[in-house]
Amino acid sequence: MHLAFLRDYHEALVIALARTVPTLERGTVAEVTGLTPQAVSKVLARLVEEGLLEPAGVRRPPRGKPAAVYRLVPGSRRAIGAHVTRRELRLVLVDLAGTVLASIATPLPADFTPDELLDELASGVTTMIAERQLATPELAGVGIGMIGPLDQSTGTVRGAHRLRHWQDVPLAELAEQRLGLPVVVDKDVTAGVTAEAWRRGNTFRDAALVVVDAGVGAGLWLGGAAHRGAHTNASEFGHAVVQLDGPRCACGRRGCLEAVHEQAPDPATAAAVLATGVVNLLQTLDLGHIVLGGADLLPHGDLYREAVEDAVRTQLPGAGWLTVNVSLTSLGTDVVAAGAAMQVLNARYGLPDPTRPREPAAASR
Amino acid sequence: MHLAFLRDYHEALVIALARTVPTLERGTVAEVTGLTPQAVSKVLARLVEEGLLEPAGVRRPPRGKPAAVYRLVPGSRRAIGAHVTRRELRLVLVDLAGTVLASIATPLPADFTPDELLDELASGVTTMIAERQLATPELAGVGIGMIGPLDQSTGTVRGAHRLRHWQDVPLAELAEQRLGLPVVVDKDVTAGVTAEAWRRGNTFRDAALVVVDAGVGAGLWLGGAAHRGAHTNASEFGHAVVQLDGPRCACGRRGCLEAVHEQAPDPATAAAVLATGVVNLLQTLDLGHIVLGGADLLPHGDLYREAVEDAVRTQLPGAGWLTVNVSLTSLGTDVVAAGAAMQVLNARYGLPDPTRPREPAAASR
DNA sequence: CGACTTTAGCAACGCTGTTGCGTTAATACC
DNA sequence: GGTATTAACGCAACAGCGTTGCTAAAGTCG
């Protein structure tokens, strides 16, 4: 680990702050980060130099010299995100602030092959780059949120459920060659929770994005980072058993949350089942935020949200201090694609990982 | 964050390595950590200076200058750990290598008060210090593993289950005043999983210690650190529902894993229920290691281990690559107390937390 | 207009790991 | 036995990060 880690870490702190507050000042940043004002000056100067921040006038205190005010330049960096489901490909363009600037969905052929996906992806990405006139230093890369199981560390799909042509496909590598851009691949729900985290800032430290979309999954954000697990296969929350003698699930077990949820007679019952599963998650992991999403949940969004809020109130002990924020995703059906894009930004402008050095700072002179 | 973070981080890497391998050399450390050999020389010199490492002869390569060999001095730092249950107080002494040097258990009065616990704790700690002639720089502090719920960040017990006199007790603060030593407090199972992690080294990155002892809990070690959650109340795994219409649990819900497990007609059925719960955990979190422990599990240890191994084999898809290491804790009934002690060592000699600076290096000249 | 307050920034510094290069201690070769 | 080779060690100068000390700037207040 070089000294560069410190620099990147502090720059990432400031960027994260800039994402969640309208304006920045030297003094307030120093307070939040614990750095000295002098050090903050240097960090701010570097970020202005890189184009990520810009001056935004001054604040005049009741007495004394006016303070220089800065703000994020959201458009200075962008990334493209893709959400691959069994039926369609959704592409979004997001900026540094986590705003979705464009979103298009195109159908995919039934049981599509890797080549068919790559064709569709390349065509969509090329169009988007042309339409928006995106240049290389500005466009950070492409993220792909995909149904699992897959190996996130290498970007290889191990064998997507119900897609025959996807056994051990090195998707990240293939897409990089095809697009000529950096590509990261991750499970759909893990990408999705990254979107929520990127937009909400650092109070969002322990959370889950619970998604119902054909199956049930939960992307996990634990201790301020995505949790992927030992084989990057975490989030198969839908295959946790909630009814030992319940109906047979596609995975072979009995009474998986997903199977019980699916067979519920009406949406209200289904929501109650899911809510119980969410409380299980809270008991085990003690999350501060539950975000709900997915194409099969959002049509009954308020119903689900109320069911979960109700379960949190009635099924979880320690009411006074065990506060859980329950909400629907503000990104709707874009959440996975947007999260995949933000993973690209997060890799470069999020908190660095001490175990791996970061690539040599793309556009820094 | 100061430059001191880098220093502490690299020292912690070397100490962690020294714990898990018999001997160290400059070259191998450089390879593992990614530092230059020159930097490793400086780190090793500092650690020898502090007494944590010592020279251990030389290795003579086929040709060339012999390499200096170092090894950990396990006895150079020790910590005392306490495990508080409803019936007894267990005290252990551990060293830097994670070896348990002494273990004593004393009964606690029924429904004991904070004062009664502190009396017993002070008496036991004083005895242990006297018997082993522990000096201040050598003894790093005292850790307490306690039944929850509690606030780990402040060391306050919020209101331990079935203990009437434990509403909002600032246990860490009280114990520090009483003992004159640094004290950390944590949930029993979280302390326990720290013991396993400290002894197993950095291949142990995503794991759970599943404990059956009156209740059922799971201490979580995720991404190389203890997972405590938004209100430091994670690990209440026993209160995850596995049978929606199951028996009423003490917590008010129906069909909690703990309740279903408790009412199983025989140990084999109980083990199968727990095993299903463990697979739920694996589906959600994708853990690489499951460690089993607890006073009510260990008497049937092999039965439980085989049940879990069997469930992992038969209930978890993706057999080829989803490898899970299942084992019984090697520390037996000492695991929680030992883990509490290792949390003290971990706070000082484990990987530092970027968000909080470390206290000013106790005994560094 | 001078005193005071608040913020900004230059310059020197301390500490980290890095780089360059010479030194040391062993074996292999002639 | 001397010389070359090898592998590891370590001094010294260096680069880059945040910190410290101090001065300057830009306002308000009396």
Largest sheet of chain A: 5 strands, mixed
Gyration radius of chain A, rounded? 21 Å
Classify the oligomer: homodimer
Q: Mean pLDDT of chain A, as a whole number?
A: 93
Q: How far is it from the N-terminal to the C-terminal residue of chain A, by CA?
A: 22 Å
Query: How many individual helices of chain A?
Result: 10
Strand order of the largest sheet of chain A: 6-5-4-7-11
Estimate what percentage of residues of chain A fall within beta strands.
15-25%
Shape of chain A: globular
What does it look like?
The structure is a homodimer of 365-residue chains. By secondary structure, chain A is α/β, with parallel strands linked by helices. The first copy, chain A, is 37% helix and 24% strand. Chain A contains 10 helices and 16 strands. Chain A has a 5-stranded mixed beta sheet, with helices on both faces. In chain A, strands 14-13-12-15-16 form a 5-stranded mixed beta sheet, with helices on both faces. In chain A, strand 9 and strand 10 form a beta hairpin. In chain A, helix 2 packs across helix 3 and helix 6 packs across helix 10. The interface between A and B is large, with 62 and 62 residues. The first copy, chain A, binds a DNA duplex (30 and 30 nucleotides) through helix 1 and helix 3.
Question: What descriptive keywords fit this protein?
Answer:
DNA-binding; alpha/beta; 5-stranded mixed β-sheet; 10 helices; disordered C terminus; homodimer; 365 residues; globular
Secondary structure: elements and pairs:
Two copies of one chain form a homodimer.
Chain A: H1 4-20, E1 24-25, H2 26-33, H3 37-50, E2 53-59, E3 67-72, E4 78-84, E5 88-95, E6 100-107, H4 114-132, E7 139-146, E8 150-151, E9 156-159, E10 167-169, H5 171-179, E11 183-187, H6 188-200, E12 207-213, E13 215-222, E14 225-227, H7 257-262, H8 267-285, E15 289-293, H9 301-315, E16 325-328, H10 335-349
Parallel strand pairs in A: 4-7, 7-11, 12-15, 15-16
Antiparallel strand pairs in A: 1-3, 2-3, 4-5, 5-6, 8-9, 9-10, 12-13, 13-14
Helix pairs in contact in A: 2-3, 4-5, 6-10, 8-9
The structure holds a DNA duplex (30 and 30 nucleotides).
